[in-house]
């Protein structure tokens, strides 16, 4: 198992469009394990392969409080959607930033499991929000892309400020 590095906005690699998974092999199994370790250690409710610089159509979700209900979706698709709902979103690739995003309320999805078997599910609530957020990552889209240009500018400034503060903190820790 390995804890993988998570790419952060505005890293251009987050804009890569993921390609379908073709090999359902042991390497894929190891990648899934490493991504779960990464997601749980970062306290995320989801993780897309794009965020760990792997440009394959693979995403993980665990929206349970108890952190023991892992879901894996390979070559995922949204096949039906209805309603719309606004939720405050965050992203491990845009740390410390939270904003309201509107998405479909209920979705029907299809995907494959790690053995390559196809399945369908109906999702709603946080599970549906997270699935759509992760699907966006696989297409190179981030939740901040939906914000107004003014808000996007504020996001960039806040991230710059946070990063400067982090450098200050780690320098201070040396004495
Ligand atoms: O951990 C996460 N929380 C979250 C909260 C609201 C809407 C979406 C998410 S996904 C995010 C983890 C992440 O960045 N996945 O790509
Ligand atoms: Ni994200």
Number of helices: 3
Radius of gyration: 17 Å
- What ions, cofactors and ligands are bound? ligand GNR, nickel (II) ion
Structural class: alpha+beta
- Average of the residue pLDDT scores: 97
Task: Provide the low-confidence segments as ranges.
Answer: none
Describe this structure in words.
This protein has 3 helices and 7 strands, in the order αβββββββαα. The protein has one domain: Peptide Deformylase. The strands form 2 sheets. It has a 5-stranded antiparallel β-sheet with strand order 1-2-3-6-7, sandwiched between helices. A hairpin with a 5-residue loop joins strand 6 (106-112) and strand 7 (118-124). By secondary structure, it is α+β, with helices and mostly antiparallel strands. The structure holds ligand GNR and nickel (II) ion.
Summarize the structure.
The protein is an alpha+beta fold.
Topology:
Elements: H1 26-41, E1 46-48, E2 58-61, E3 71-82, E4 85-89, E5 99-103, E6 106-112, E7 118-124, H2 125-138, H3 149-172
Antiparallel strand pairs: 1-2, 2-3, 3-6, 4-5, 6-7
This protein binds ligand GNR and nickel (II) ion.
Residues 91-93, 133, 137 line the site of nickel (II) ion (NI).
Record keyword descriptors for this entry:
globular; 175 residues; Peptide Deformylase; two-stranded antiparallel ribbon; 31% helix; binds nickel (II) ion
């Amino acid at each position: 198992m390995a804890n993988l590095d998570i790419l952060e906005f505005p890293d251009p690699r987050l804009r890569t469009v993921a390609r379908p998974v073709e090999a359902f092999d042991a390497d894929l199994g190891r990648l899934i394990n490493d991504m779960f370790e990464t997601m749980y250690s970062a306290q995320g409710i989801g993780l897309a392969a794009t965020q760990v610089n792997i440009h394959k159509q693979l995403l993980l979700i665990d929206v349970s409080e108890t952190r023991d209900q892992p879901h894996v979706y390979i070559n995922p698709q949204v096949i039906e959607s209805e309603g719309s709902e606004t939720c405050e979103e965050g992203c491990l690739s845009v740390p410390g930033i939270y904003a309201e995003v509107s998405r479909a309320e209920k979705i029907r999805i299809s995907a494959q499991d790690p053995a390559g078997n196809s399945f369908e599910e109906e999702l709603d609530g946080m599970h549906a929000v997270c699935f759509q957020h992760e699907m966006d990552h696989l297409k190179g889209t981030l939740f901040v892309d939906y914000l107004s240009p003014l808000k996007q500018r504020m996001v960039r400034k806040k991230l710059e400020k946070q990063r400067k503060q982090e450098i200050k903190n780690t320098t201070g820790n040396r004495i």
